[in-house]
Design goal:
Layout lengths: L1 E3 L12 E10 L17 H13 L6 H12 L7 E8 L9 E8 L3
Helix pairs in contact: 1-2
Length: 109
């Protein structure tokens, strides 16, 4: 969960709100389990740093736009074949846990 300026409604333009970001990075099909070789493991620390940077970079209109930027950051690692990103604004509606978007992308060929 990060604090982020996100949304197209006027009241969302000048305030930070809680945004939950969940990411799945998938290795290519058939890739061998890396075992104890940490150099072959996808580094989630980098994607977490990218999420924090995106959230702090300025206003984002849509959850989909945030998710697209996170997906692009995931593909910066050549070992990532697929990315699934969920972005939820947690405090928009009092009777909903959250609202947002889920985006799935395969590495462009």
């Amino acid at each position: 969960v990060v604090m982020c300026s996100i949304g197209i409604r006027p009241e969302e333009q000048d305030t930070l709100q809680r945004v939950r970001v969940s990411v799945e990075l998938t290795a290519p099909a058939g890739a061998a389990f890396p075992g104890e070789n940490r150099r072959r493991v996808i580094n989630y620390e980098k994607i977490v740093a990218a999420i924090r940077e995106i959230a702090a970079s300025g206003h984002i209109d849509l959850c989909e736009g945030f998710a697209e930027r996170v997906a692009a950051a995931g593909f910066a690692d050549p070992r990532v074949a697929r990315v699934r990103v969920a972005v939820e604004k947690l405090d928009v509606f009092p009777d909903a846990e959250g609202v947002g978007a889920i985006l799935e992308r395969a590495r462009p060929v």
